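I have been asked to look over a protein record a colleague put together. The record follows directly below this note.
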Amino acid sequence: MIESSGRGLRLSVSPYPDESLLSLVARSAFANVFPRTTRILELAGIVAAKAAFAPFTASAKADALSFLLSKDVIYVQARMHEPVITSGAEELVNWFDTVLPRRFIESAHRRFSAGAIQAAPYQRARWMIRPLPYCSETMEYLHQKCPRTDCGKDLGWTIASGIEKCEHCGFDLCQTTRVFVPEELRPNLKLAADLVSTSVQERSVA
């Protein structure tokens, strides 16, 4: 393992503009040969039972995490979806300056589009939005389980095995059978996805 003794990680990965925080942490863990993504969080002083909790509970450690990852703190803070208001039983969070119900955001399961991770192996933040079961980049329906018939397990963020791999059996997720959204639905679905984009420009146009 490659640890840093109070410094930034020895190997820094380049972030993508539309990448989720969990994806960046997982890729950083894999690059630095940490078997578990929670080790990155621990080095930043973040105590989380599961990595999936970090984007919603660790904003106070944004400075430490950004330093560890060698990333701009604004980039990291934007990907920490802290509660903005709680109305009754409904928790609302900040999703890139858009207020969304917390239940709309899937963080436990690692959703993916085979075509998209083949083009670039990282999780697009929009894949975390539960009401959007498709990738607006490839117009494929998303998966969150290993498609290998003798595995079929849920994909998560605990084991750092590479975004394009099943952490349970090692299956190359890029080989997943791709199922596409009907052509006539794509314009409206692209517009819906742009409403929750990480890009200010895409959100404003939508």
Observations:
- The CA atoms of residues 1 and 34 lie 6 Å apart.
- The beta strands are 83-87, 90-95, 98-101.
- The longest helix spans residues 21-31.
- Helices lie at 21-31, 38-43, 54-57, 62-69, 73-78, 114-119, 186-194, 200-205.
